[in-house]
Inverse folding.
């Protein structure tokens, strides 16, 4: 079953200490009519503030998902180009009458957000005024057991956001070496018992490969132990999902393309939920917003050839109490924004 949007959707959270996509109570969702659900997008007002949508401005929602941010951008007069790699999510969006009512002001493309350069070249060759990256997993992916993302219902070990890709969670779990598994569990999942979990997985698969999500979750839980409010396999599942979908690599590629796509004064806004994602965004914006660079061996600072942005957020913007009260999943969200300068910083 695919969850389609009537009005709003949200990206669910990836672990960064406080929130996680596999903690789903169903709050904010309801099924009815077209199998829709309502949920306010994370940091919506903050994203709109920094993107500054309006008539004559074109914004790319590079992680379309349920299109909650996109609908709000359209309502404020912007033209929106949506990018979504998941064909099921895209089908929901394309059948949404609220969105289609905006006609040519909204168009969507199936692509990985890492391919933003090609999409914008085709749809807005003169550049765009805003780029939004709202990272994480969409609720329709988690709510469909057959997609293999959820810890709540049994499904095949898949976890592909784009079912056309070759690498699946089953391939990672059943063929990768113990050291590589331990590395991704530690780096992407921040799992403290990463080595022990990897060792247990390799030992178990020697007699019987993993094929189902709850089978893998049970194996991990036997090592990590139960306790606390999140499922003990949550961090391992996150690491596998991020590996299968090349999430950090895609983020880096999209960020590197942004300066070439934004017109002077255009805004880049990124909402992340994982500490690794936020680190990449923070370093990118810092590197591209410094007028000069300096090294110990240089007699004086030199002009930075990558000086292309002005920071709009000195620190990450986080959800305020009113939003947290209505949407606890927002507690891990961090928003960073920057504005494109003219002529490479001049």
């Amino acid at each position: 079953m695919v969850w389609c949007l009537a009005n709003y959707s949200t990206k669910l959270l990836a672990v960064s200490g406080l929130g996680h996509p596999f903690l789903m109570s169903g709050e904010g969702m309801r099924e009815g009519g077209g199998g829709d659900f309502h949920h306010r997008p994370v940091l919506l007002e903050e994203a709109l503030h920094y993107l500054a949508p309006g008539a004559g401005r074109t914004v790319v929602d590079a992680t379309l998902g349920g299109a909650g941010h996109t609908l709000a951008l359209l309502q404020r007069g912007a033209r929106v180009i949506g990018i979504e790699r998941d064909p099921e999510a895209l089908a929901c969006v394309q059948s949404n009458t609220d969105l289609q009512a905006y006609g040519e002001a909204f168009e969507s493309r199936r692509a990985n957000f890492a391919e933003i350069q090609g999409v914008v070249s085709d749809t807005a060759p003169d550049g765009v005024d805003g780029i939004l990256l709202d990272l994480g997993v969409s609720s329709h992916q988690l709510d469909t057991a057959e997609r293999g993302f959820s810890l709540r219902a049994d499904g095949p070990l898949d976890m592909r956001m784009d079912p056309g890709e070759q690498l699946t969670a089953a391939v990672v779990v059943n063929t990768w070496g113990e050291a590589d598994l331990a590395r991704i569990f530690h780096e992407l999942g921040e799992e403290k018992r990463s080595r022990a979990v990897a060792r247990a997985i390799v030992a178990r698969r020697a007699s019987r490969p993993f094929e189902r999500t709850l089978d893998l979750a049970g194996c991990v839980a036997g090592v990590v132990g139960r306790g606390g409010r999140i499922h003990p396999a949550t961090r391992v599942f996150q690491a596998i999902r991020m590996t299968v979908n090349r999430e950090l690599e895609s983020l880096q590629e999209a960020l590197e393309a942004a300066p070439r796509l934004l017109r002077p004064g255009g805004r880049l806004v990124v909402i992340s939920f994982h500490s690794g994602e936020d680190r990449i965004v923070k370093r990118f914006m810092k590197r591209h917003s410094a007028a000069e660079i300096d090294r110990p061996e240089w007699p004086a600072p030199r002009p930075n050839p990558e000086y292309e942005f002005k920071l709009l957020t000195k620190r990450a913007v986080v959800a305020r109490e009113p939003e947290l009260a209505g949407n606890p999943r927002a507690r891990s969200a961090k928003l960073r924004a920057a504005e494109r300068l003219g002529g490479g910083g001049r």
Q: What stands out?
A: Residues 166-244 form a domain with the DNA polymerase; domain 1 fold (CATH 1.10.150.170). The chain has two domains: 4-139+247-340, 166-244. The chain has 14 helices and 13 strands. The radius of gyration is 21 Å.
